[in-house]
TrEMBL record:
Stated name of the protein: Esterase
Highest taxon of the lineage: Bacteria
Family recorded in the similarity comment: Belongs to the AB hydrolase superfamily. AB hydrolase 2 family.
Organism: Paenibacillus germinis
PANTHER family: LYSOPHOSPHOLIPASE-LIKE PROTEIN 1, LYSOPHOSPHOLIPASE-RELATED
Alphabetical UniProt keywords: Hydrolase
Keyword set includes Hydrolase: yes
InterPro entries membership: AB_hydrolase_fold, LYPA1-2/EST-like, PLipase/COase/thioEstase
Residue stretches making up the Phospholipase/carboxylesterase/thioesterase domain: 19-199
Protein biosynthesis is among the record's keywords: no
Length: 219
């Protein structure tokens, strides 16, 4: 099978050939690319396989996974196709590389966060956890998609208090929606616009390491 998406993969430097590793799939924002996302998760590179998935649609100097009718209003057919193809890519990569299927994480920013939360809702416990930075769950996903339980999925959501693209109330609404479905939800606000602060990065890196059992709370 040829993957639908181009991607960037980083394998741990001292890999044990008999071991399967946790994986973080990164999903970038509109107009960005997979290499821009690597900097956010580079400190995990010794312990995780990191796969940056590039959107298939060129946009300026970057890419996107789907186009929009208007802000916050994805073109439904393109969005549906992206969700289907990303799920297929996750299974493709799990078979191709030494990935532990019980330790699969998604980390997305903006458009990537929207897709990460949607995939959590459609894949359920096929994913161990997601990090969603400055995103939301589209209404049509909540009402028209076939959703699976996320009670066993760990979810880290963060939002900028001064986000000028998706106002902070969207972060609160998203957290409230998911809070009803899982006890494994972490929701944090940061004094930023539509971006990721150093504090935000440190928090989700520690969250990922802890959730994957690489550090304990004492550490």
């Amino acid at each position: 099978m040829n993957p639908f998406y181009q991607y960037d993969i980083h394998l741990p430097a001292n890999m044990d050939p008999d071991k399967r590793y946790p994986v973080v799939f990164t999903l970038h924002g509109k107009g960005s690319n997979e290499k821009n996302m690597f900097g956010l998760v580079a400190p995990l590179a010794d312990d995780f396989i990191i796969i940056g998935i590039r959107g298939n649609l060129p946009l300026g100097a970057g890419y996107q996974y789907y186009d929009l009718k208007s802000l916050g209003n994805p073109i439904r057919e393109m969005f549906d196709e992206a969700v289907k193809q990303l799920e297929a890519f996750i299974h493709y990569a799990t078979e191709k590389y030494p990935i532990d299927p019980g330790e699969r994480y998604l980390l997305g920013f903006s458009q990537g966060a929207i897709l990460s939360m949607t995939l959590a809702l459609t894949m359920g416990d096929e994913l161990n956890g997601i990090v969603a930075l400055n995103g939301y769950v589209p209404d049509f996903v909540k009402t028209e998609y076939l959703l699976r339980s996320v009670k066993d999925v760990s979810i880290f959501i963060s939002h900028g208090e001064y986000d000028s693209v998706f106002p902070v109330r969207i972060g609160h609404e998203t957290a409230l929606y998911l809070k009803d479905q899982t006890k494994r939800l972490t929701f944090k606000l940061y004094p930023t616009d539509h971006g990721v602060s150093e504090e935000n990065q440190l928090d989700f890196l520690n969250w990922l390491k802890h959730d994957a059992g690489l550090i304990t709370k004492k550490d």
